[in-house]
Amino acid sequence: MPFRTSRRVEFVDTDTANIVHFSNFFRFMESAECEFLRHHGLSVVMTWQGQAIGFPRRAASCEYLKPARFEDVLDIVVTVLKIGHSSVTYGHEFFLRGELIARGQVSTVCCRVLDDRRIEPIAIPAEIRRVLEEAAG
Fold it and tell me: 7-45 in b/e burial notation, b at 16+ Cβ within 10 A?
């Protein structure tokens, strides 16, 4: 099932033409993903069965269809597109007054965070996978 959230464009998000700078859509996607996970009792960084795990990004892309400007309220729809052995890919759609203005994808990998802060990919734990699958519908 899609998760919906909204965000008002702040002045800091815009460039000198008063249009949202393209790079900020990546920040918006990450914030929406965090809200999605929090809504489902998860996080991009958490302790799972005594082990620190996280979901760092593997890939991200965004296609821009129309501009957004200061004070616009964007509706952001997050969907789980794919759940792999250790990866999750999210889709993001940005709407302004009901019109699609941008869409993007973010792929993450479930990783164990080692004591020396290195990370190593692991299989998505069964309970987290279950929550993600339920959210995906």
Answer: bebeeebbeeeebbeeebbbebbbebbbbbbeeeebeee
The whole-angstrom separation of Cα 86 and Cα 30 is 19
Which pLDDT belongs to residue 82? Answer: 97
β-sheet bridge partners, residue 119: 113
Give helix then strand counts, H and E, for the chain: 2, 9
- Residue 114 CA: distances (Å) to CA of 20, 110, 120, 129, 131: 37, 13, 8, 21, 24
pLDDT of residue 137: 87
**Which domains are assigned to the chain?**
3-136 (3.10.129.10)
CB atoms < 10 A from the CB of 128, how many?
21
Q: What percentage of the chain reaches a pLDDT higher than 90?
A: 96
Q: Does the global pTM surpass 0.85?
A: yes
CA distance 45 to 8: 25
